[in-house]
Each structure stands twice: as structure tokens, then as C-alpha cells.
User: Which sequence fits this backbone?
């Protein structure tokens, strides 16, 4: 028989987990789902990048401040992980504003997914216009990440802070994209 709402056991259970917050098992599944979404975006981006990094991109005129290619994988791995954890922190709070915050997160994730094939995959087909298309996408991505940070911050300060390196990297990548659009 379930404990009475006014019993000490019910009072203890309500203190252990705030009303509306998911249980531990659900939280773990939620974290795994956010990590899987990030991994999916990363994997799909990798498909567009794979053949082109050693193809047209290897001989392209790149910005003098471009890091070596090996830097991108570890940086993106950390950023995608931080993004997933940030979204999970917001999701698990189930606070007012969670839905619009996660909508902003989803929008930036889609823009992130679109940038890689536009930049790497369209260049062999369109040439320089592909780099300009990618630049428009990455600027929109920077705006979407900024909106996401603003929406995450009041729900979870940690979540907002976790996205700051991502925004910094997107701004840096925008400068690389712009240079290539201007010089290729």
C-alpha cells in the first residue's frame, strides 16, 4: 500500500526529489540521450569532412591562424560533450523556461549539423559560394548559441558557462570560414 501523503516516508521522499524533477534513472537516460544527440551530429559532420579534409581543403588558402587539422577532433569532442551536459543540466531542472531553452539548443544543434556539409561538402560542387553559404550558417549558429546561453543561464548557471567555450570556438571558426571565403 502506498504511504500516506502526510506520512514521514512521503515527506522524506518529497525532500529527496523536488516536485517535477526526474528520478535518477530517468536523469541518466536523459544524459545518455543528450550525449547520443551530440555524437550523432558529430558523426554526421565527420561524414561530410572525411574525404574533403585531405581533398580540396588540404590545398585551400587557409587563414594564417588556422590550427593544424589534428586539433579539431579533440576540441570538438570536448565541446560536444560540454554541450550535451549543459542541455542535460537544463532539462533535469524542469524549471520555467526549460522548453524555450531546449528549443534554442535544438536550433543551434541543427545549425551546427548544417555547417559542416555546407562548408566541406558543397565546396567541390559550388566552389567559393559554398564557403559564403557556410559563413551565413556559422554566423546564425553563433547567434543561436548566444540565445541558448542566455536562456540556459537563469535555469542553470553551470549550463550557461559550459557553452561559453563553444561560443568562443564558433566565433574563431567563423574567422577561419570568412578568411577562406575571401581567399578561395
Assistant:
Amino acid at each position: 500500500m502506498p504511504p500516506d501523503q502526510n506520512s514521514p516516508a512521503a515527506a522524506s521522499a518529497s525532500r529527496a526529489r523536488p516536485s517535477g524533477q526526474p528520478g535518477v534513472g530517468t536523469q541518466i537516460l536523459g544524459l545518455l540521450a543528450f550525449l547520443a544527440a551530440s555524437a550523432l551530429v558529430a558523426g554526421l559532420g565527420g561524414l561530410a569532412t572525411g574525404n574533403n579534409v585531405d581533398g580540396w581543403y588540404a590545398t585551400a588558402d587557409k587563414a594564417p591562424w588556422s590550427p593544424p587539422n589534428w586539433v579539431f577532433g579533440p576540441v570538438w569532442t570536448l565541446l560536444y560533450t560540454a554541450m550535451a551536459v549543459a542541455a542535460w543540466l537544463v532539462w533535469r531542472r524542469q524549471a520555467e523556461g526549460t522548453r524555450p531553452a531546449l528549443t534554442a539548443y535544438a536550433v543551434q544543434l541543427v545549425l551546427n549539423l548544417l555547417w559542416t556539409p555546407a562548408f566541406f561538402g558543397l565546396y567541390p560542387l559550388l566552389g567559393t559560394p559554398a564557403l559564403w553559404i557556410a559563413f551565413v550558417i556559422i554566423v546564425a549558429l553563433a547567434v543561436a548559441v548566444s540565445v541558448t546561453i542566455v536562456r540556459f543561464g537563469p535555469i542553470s548557471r553551470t549550463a550557461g558557462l559550459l557553452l561559453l567555450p563553444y561560443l568562443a570556438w564558433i566565433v574563431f571558426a567563423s574567422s577561419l570560414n570568412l578568411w577562406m571565403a575571401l581567399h578561395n
Q: What stands out?
A: The radius of gyration is 20 Å. The chain has a mean pLDDT of 89. Residues 24-53 form the longest helix (30 residues). The chain has nine helices and no strands.
